[in-house]
Amino acid sequence: MRDWTARQWLVAALVAAGIVLVAGAVTGLIPNPLFTRMIEAPWWSYPVWIASAVLSGLLVASYLAPSAQLAAERSRDQRRTVVGAVLSFLAVGCPTCNKLVVLALGTSGAVTWFGPLQPVLAIGSLVLLGFALRARLRSARGCRVPAAGRP
């Protein structure tokens, strides 16, 4: 990340801000007239929401770097990114507002089973996003493309 361009930092900041706004609005962490939470967000939802947005922004920006990376590595990193982002969305969302959870478990099941599972989803999402970012940065560092005119 030391060698990142201003463009990569700008993309990272814009993507993180976009994720904060969209995920915050849809999960009701940002009060808005379109989505309201039926159950108050626990305290840990806010740091997980911000951390996952920052990690996702950094991940997206890391794909702007030139690299000669193998397609298999890129695919694995992308899977970690997608799974981590989905888990963070599920972790900070209202358990009874998630239609799929309510359909699968019912309202009481969403509160009884899914609600207590959300902190585990939050940790899992941050771990996956962290591993994906670490892998991207390592592979980008190992696959430097020399600047024009330099041996």
Description:
Keywords: Membrane, Transmembrane, Transmembrane helix. This is Integral membrane protein. It comes from Saccharopolyspora oryzae. The chain crosses the membrane at residues 9-31, 43-65, 86-107, 113-133. The chain is mainly alpha-helical and 151 residues long. The chain has one domain (6-142). It has four helices and no strands. The protein has helices spanning 6-26, 45-62, 71-92, 99-142. Helix 2 packs across helix 4 (99-142). The longest helix is centred in the C-terminal third of the chain and has 44 residues, at 99-142. The radius of gyration is 18 Å and the shape is elongated.
Structure described in brief:
This protein is about 70% helix and about 0% strand. With about 150 residues, the chain is mostly helical. Keywords: Membrane, Transmembrane, Transmembrane helix.
Descriptors:
151 residues, mainly alpha, 70% helix
Count of individual domains: 1
Largest β-sheet summary: none
Beta-sheet strand percentage? under 5%
Shape: elongated
Number of helices: 4
What's the number of extended β-strand segments? 0
Q: Give me the strand/helix succession.
A: HHHH
Helix content: 55-70%
| Termini Cα gap | 22 Å
Query: SS-based structural class?
Result: mainly alpha
Task: Flag low-confidence runs.
Answer: 68-72
CA-atom Rg in angstroms: 18 Å
Mean pLDDT: 81
Keywords: Membrane, Transmembrane, Transmembrane helix
Transmembrane segments: 9-31, 43-65, 86-107, 113-133
Organism: Saccharopolyspora oryzae
Protein name: Integral membrane protein
